[in-house]
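Exam revision sheet. Question 4 asks you to relate a sequence to its structure. Input first:
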Amino acid sequence: MRGIRRLIIVGAVAFGMFATLGATPAVAGVGGGQVTGTVFTDGIGACPGGPTDLCRKPQNNIKFSGVLITGSFASNDGSQVFVGSVNVGTANEVTARSTTGGTMVDDIGVVFPFSVDDAISATGANITNGAPPTNGCSGTYQRVGSIVVVPLNCKFSLNGRATTTAVTVLAQFSPTAGDGITTPITQANFTGIYVAV
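Answer key, structure tokens:
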């Protein structure tokens, strides 16, 4: 839990710096912004025989749909900066799987490799070639209550310049279908920030 709190504090500070500096990162490889999307699951909570909040469902499949990233990225050498919005995932979907069987209390899982769509930046630095296996993103996720931390390793190109970055997403998991007590949670909004370093 302390690790989650530290990540939230670090992310909030970094995002505050991004907002203060404006859209253009001040350091090579650094960026930040907002992330939105919808999460679909096989069902969290509401297991028969209770306690419902602690029941685990192994191999719970997770799908992040309609994920939109709005913010900035910088190339490794700092010469190229992308500022704008980009969709991610195959057909705008990112798949993941729980390795612990998610409960209402917590969940840990893996995020499978996904692509970053080609996108045109207002600054002229365009994102290209963001597709697995050579490029793209992959990583893990951890949820404690409604707070989700998603550390990712990403690789793509900005106007032909290599961009390899560690992206940490900090988001709020807000159920929109099911409550986890009487009915399993099968859908939720996913809204937060990301920091790229």
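Marking note for examiners. The CA atoms of residues 41 and 62 lie 5 Å apart.
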